[in-house]
UniProtKB/TrEMBL annotation:
InterPro entries: Chaperone_Skp (IPR005632), Skp_dom_sf (IPR024930). Belongs to the Skp family. It comes from Pontibacter toksunensis. Transmembrane segments: none annotated. Residues 1-19 form the signal peptide. Coiled coil: none annotated. It holds the Pfam family OmpH. This is OmpH family outer membrane protein. SUPFAM superfamilies: OmpH-like (SSF111384). The keyword Zinc does not apply. Keywords: Signal. Residues 113-132 are annotated as: Disordered.
Length: 201
């Protein structure tokens, strides 16, 4: 019974690219700073960000684990239900009409409960995934705002091969590595602080 699928990568990519589905019009905007060394418009490769951001990888692993556990639970219950159906098919002919009606009603209710459980598990996982995507987007956005203030960037675009309005850009405008390294450093510090707090408790 294939029930739950984790679409974390695609969800993150869609979320991250959502604000940049069309190339911004940059006529009249300087492409370098007044000093002539720092570009005003830079971009982040969202594919590389997803591949290398440790927080994203931890979230994906955790949600995949929850999804697999929920699927195993549902599969176990579905198999038990199937065995009940098979037993009824084998013994139903020996039952009275009333017993058959009661058994069929009970099996039907069980089937409905399984379907509701499947839907509920899928909705819960999708809701948690959506919340995590928002957290990831907020983390990236917060850092990019800070970085733009420090560097004087006027615009930070996203690039994803095959799904981007940017067909070509000078590699010097790619700040992906800098962004990923800073995000990972912040996340490592955050995890270390959380581990220290947990140890003290």
């Amino acid at each position: 019974m294939k029930v739950l699928k984790i679409s974390l990568g695609l969800a993150m990519a869609a979320s991250f690219l959502g604000a940049c589905t069309e190339a911004p019009k940059v006529e009249g905007v300087n492409t370098t700073s007044e000093a002539g060394t720092t570009p005003d418009i830079v971009y982040v490769n969202s594919d590389s960000l997803l591949t290398n951001y440790e927080y994203f990888k931890d979230v994906r692993t955790r949600l995949q684990g929850k999804g697999q556990k929920a699927e195993q639970n549902l599969r176990s219950q579905a198999e038990a239900f199937q065995k009940e159906v098979e037993r009824y098919q084998q013994t139903g002919q020996n039952m009275s009409a009333q017993q058959r009606a009661q058994t069929e009603q009970r099996l039907q209710q069980k089937q409905q409960q399984l379907q509701q459980l499947q839907q509920s598990a899928g909705n819960d996982l999708a809701g948690e995934e959506s919340e995590e995507m928002k957290k990831i987007y907020d983390r990236v956005e917060e850092y990019l705002k800070k970085l733009s203030e420090e560097k004087g960037y006027e615009m930070v675009l996203t690039y994803s091969r095959g799904n981007s309005a940017i067909l070509y850009s000078d590699p010097s405008r790619d700040i992906t590595t800098e962004v990923v390294n800073a995000l990972n450093e912040a996340y490592t510090t955050e995890k270390a602080a959380a581990d220290t707090t947990a140890t003290k408790k």
